[in-house]
Amino acid sequence: MVEWRPLRAAVRPVPEPVATPFVWAAAFAGALLTVGVLSAANGLVDPLHALLVLCALAALLGVCARFAAAPGTAAVCWLFLNGFTVPPRGELTWQGYPDAGRLAFLTVATLLGTVIARIVNARGAYRRITPGGDRDASP
Q1: Are the C-beta atoms of residues 70 and 111 closer than 8 Å to each other?
Q2: 115/80 Cα distance (integer angstroms)
Q3: Is the pTM of the predicted complex or chain greater than 0.90?
Q4: Which of 51, 71, 77, 111 stands 20 to 30 A from 134 (CA)?
Q5: How many CB atoms lie within 10 A of CB 107?
Q6: Residue 71 and residue 61: Cα distance in Å, rounded?
Q7: Nearest by Cα to 66 from 115, 29, 26, 103
Q8: CA–CA separation, 15 and 32 (whole Å)
Q9: Residue 11 has pLDDT above 60, yes or no
Q10: pLDDT tens profile 73-117
């Protein structure tokens, strides 16, 4: 027999994403800290290292963000990447395809983090609201 329960009465089945301005502020602070640490550790020899670390940061921020925050998060990370790690350092320049590729990598990383979080949250919500819990488990 099916027992109907109101979902809003108790715990929300899916966590609410963090507000977009907070994610962008975290991206600003995280990218600033990341570039500073890489600069102090002499890790800015190759911009690829900074791109990979900033992609990981963007994916981590994407886990708790909305889909609408992805372009802004990627843009903030790209500004720090382009301004402080890609020669000429200290200047924002657009180099065409390389910068478009870097921006695309950062955007995909942010979206990937958001998609993974949505899938994990949806599976958890399904298990919480389904009678009997885990349907995937084999005896």
Answers
A1: yes
A2: 24
A3: no
A4: 111
A5: 20
A6: 12
A7: 115
A8: 28
A9: no
A10: 999 999 999 999 988 888 888 889 999 999 999 999 999 999 999
